[in-house]
Each structure stands twice: as structure tokens, then as C-alpha cells.
From TrEMBL:
Keywords annotated in UniProt: Cell membrane, Cell projection, Chemotaxis, Cilium, Flagellar rotation, Flagellum, Membrane
Family: Belongs to the FliN/MopA/SpaO family.
Location relative to the cell: Cell membrane
Protein name: Flagellar motor switch protein FliN
Keyword Cell membrane: yes
Keyword Transmembrane: no
GO CC annotation, single: bacterial-type flagellum basal body
Membrane topology, record value: Peripheral membrane protein
Alphabetical GO biological process terms: bacterial-type flagellum-dependent cell motility; chemotaxis
InterPro entries assigned: FliN-like_C (IPR001543), FliN/MopA/SpaO (IPR051469), FliN_T3SS_HrcQb (IPR001172), SpoA-like_sf (IPR036429)
Domain (Flagellar motor switch protein FliN-like C-terminal): residue spans on this chain: 8-81
GO MF annotation: an example: cytoskeletal motor activity
Amino acid sequence: MTDAATNALSRVPVEITISVGRAHPTVSELLSLKRDAVLPLDRGVDDPVELYAGDRLIARGHLQEVEGEADRLAVRLTEVIDPEGGT
């Protein structure tokens, strides 16, 4: 790849999805969900979250507030996954 192509590619935005956990309701429970329902997840509050680019796990971390902006969330990375298969 040429330097120009690499430079152009490096500016393409990538959407990252943060996964805080999974829920496993039955179909009946899912159909009966209403506003203010609570859906338990398979993780605890202090468990790490997972960061995905597409369907590829790229990192893990912990949720925290954005410094100076109490109403916004951020992720502090604790592990970055090696794209070659290691961590």
C-alpha cells in the first residue's frame, strides 16, 4: 500500500460498539417488556466491558465518567487485543 493510500485510510472513521453484557429473557418475558422494566445482564457493575469494531473484539476496559463532564460515559482501556490473535 502506498503512503498516500495509508494516509487516506488512516482518516476513515470507525464505529466502536461497547458491550456491557448480555440478557437472556424468554420470548414471553421479551414480549411483556414495558417502560421502566429492568432487564438483568450477565455481568456485574465492576466487570469489564468489551469494545468491538464490527464483530471483532479489540479491547476491554471499565466504564467511567468523562473527566469534567459528569453526565458522559467513557471507557478506560485495561486490555488491547492483539489483531494477530493474542492479547
